[in-house]
């Protein structure tokens, strides 16, 4: 429409479709086109506005975990209480701001129970059948994450690495509690431990 800017207004969060135009006398509303596919984000904590900025660490994570395709992985390590979770949280929200299409998934990996509970939550968001049992559910969620166009997976408090062992005995099936096989490995995403 060729109306002056003062007569045009954007309207969001309405029940009208994309690119709809609404004419109300001399006031015209335009609904911008929105992507039909929105990124799924499962982050259990709100953005911490009081976090101490660690730009050096965030820049290093950006270098190690590029926003382009390719399977990359990084780990934050340090003493308990040193701020690893806050750095990961800051990185997750910065990644959301920088890339609207990137899905972000947060998994508490301090025990098998929290791992499974968070995978169930992610599965609900991704439309995975909630009737699946433990290993089928975990496998379906892993596949659903790998099917996303772009994703970041954060495993918080993965202190007991025995849960994620990859040695030969585990691969041969001698231990049933290995969760590493349910960690997404596709080239469309990155993993932060």
UniProtKB/TrEMBL annotation:
GO molecular function annotations of the record: ATP hydrolysis activity
Name of the protein described by the UniProt record: ORC1/DEAH AAA+ ATPase domain-containing protein
Signal peptide: none
UniProt organism field: Emericellopsis cladophorae
Entry-linked PANTHER family: NB-ARC AND TPR DOMAIN PROTEIN, ZU5 DOMAIN-CONTAINING PROTEIN
Domain ORC1/DEAH AAA+ ATPase: 72-162
């Amino acid at each position: 429409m060729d109306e002056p800017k003062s007569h045009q207004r954007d309207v969001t969060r309405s029940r009208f479709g994309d690119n709809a135009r609404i004419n109300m006398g001399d006031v015209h509303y335009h609904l911008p086109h929105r992507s039909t596919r929105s990124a799924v984000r499962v982050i259990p904590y709100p953005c911490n506005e009081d976090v101490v900025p660690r730009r050096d660490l965030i820049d290093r994570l950006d270098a190690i975990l590029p926003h382009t395709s390719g399977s990359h992985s990084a780990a934050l390590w340090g003493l308990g209480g040193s701020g690893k979770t806050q750095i990961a949280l800051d990185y997750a929200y910065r990644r959301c701001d920088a890339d609207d299409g990137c899905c972000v998934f947060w998994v508490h990996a301090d025990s098998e129970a929290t791992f499974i509970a968070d995978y169930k939550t992610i599965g609900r968001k991704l439309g995975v059948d909630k009737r699946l049992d433990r290993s089928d559910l975990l496998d379906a969620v892993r596949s659903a994450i790998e099917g996303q166009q772009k994703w970041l997976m954060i495993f918080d408090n993965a202190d007991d690495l025995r849960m994620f062992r990859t040695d030969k005995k585990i691969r041969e099936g001698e231990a049933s509690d290995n969760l590493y096989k349910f960690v997404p490995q596709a080239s469309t995403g990155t993993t932060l431990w």
